[in-house]
């Protein structure tokens, strides 16, 4: 990750109350939608009445942006941990996709709200969120480009291959349930193998 990407990704730590407000907002945004959710409802969900909520958050808009930016921070972090110290590009791609899919099994609401409510961000916040998404996408695309350059991967389009791998996580977020037939580990392992097949790694 470049220095500029790290600067964009820097985020302040939330207080326990701030985390509770953020989590309540996430749940309400997922259930009711951003526009239909009021700050009064968010405050009530954490036992805060009236304008006291604004001692902890500046606006509903900033809460939505924080939810999306926190998710992107976490994705960058789990990606970095997954590929650290791994030399083989195929192993790095597999581990990166496994981390990507595991994130989406554990953060389904963030994925849902992030996709549906990107339109609800104001222009400034949308630009920051899109920049962070692009930064993450470049990490996946960079692995594919490296594999192609080394003749390890064989794809018709690096760009489309990266989109397909990213969509693996979004798809899982839509249907995965903890009490389902497949465990998180089974899904993660299988999707890691799918990723290698998609980029043309044999075996």
Automatic annotation (TrEMBL):
Residues 15-75 form the HTH tetR-type domain. The keyword Mitochondrion does not apply. Pfam families: TetR_C_24, TetR_N. Keywords: DNA-binding, Transcription, Transcription regulation. Residues 38-57 bind DNA. GO terms for molecular function: DNA-binding transcription factor activity; transcription cis-regulatory region binding. The keyword Transcription applies. PANTHER family: HTH-TYPE TRANSCRIPTIONAL REGULATOR BETI, HTH-TYPE TRANSCRIPTIONAL REGULATOR RUTR. This is Transcriptional regulator. It comes from Frankia alni (strain DSM 45986 / CECT 9034 / ACN14a).
């Amino acid at each position: 990750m470049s220095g500029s990407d790290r600067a964009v990704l820097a985020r302040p730590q939330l207080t326990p109350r701030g985390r509770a407000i953020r989590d309540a907002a996430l749940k309400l945004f997922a259930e009711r939608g951003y526009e239909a959710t009021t700050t009064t409802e968010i405050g009530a969900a954490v036992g805060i009445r009236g304008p006291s909520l604004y001692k902890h958050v500046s606006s509903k808009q900033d809460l939505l942006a924080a939810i999306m930016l926190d998710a992107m921070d976490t994705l960058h972090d789990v990606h970095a941990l997954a590929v650290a110290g791994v030399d083989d590009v195929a192993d790095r791609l597999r581990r990166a996709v496994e981390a990507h899919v595991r994130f989406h099994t554990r953060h389904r609401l963030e994925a849902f709200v992030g996709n549906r409510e990107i339109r609800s961000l104001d222009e400034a916040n949308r630009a920051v969120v899109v920049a962070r998404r692009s930064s993450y996408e470049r990490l996946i695309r960079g692995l594919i480009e490296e594999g192609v350059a080394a003749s390890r991967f064989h794809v018709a389009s690096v760009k489309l291959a990266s989109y397909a791998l990213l969509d693996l996580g979004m798809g899982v977020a839509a249907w995965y349930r903890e009490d389902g037939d497949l465990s998180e580990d089974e899904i993660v392992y299988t999707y890691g193998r799918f990723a290698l097949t998609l980029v043309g790694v044999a075996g």
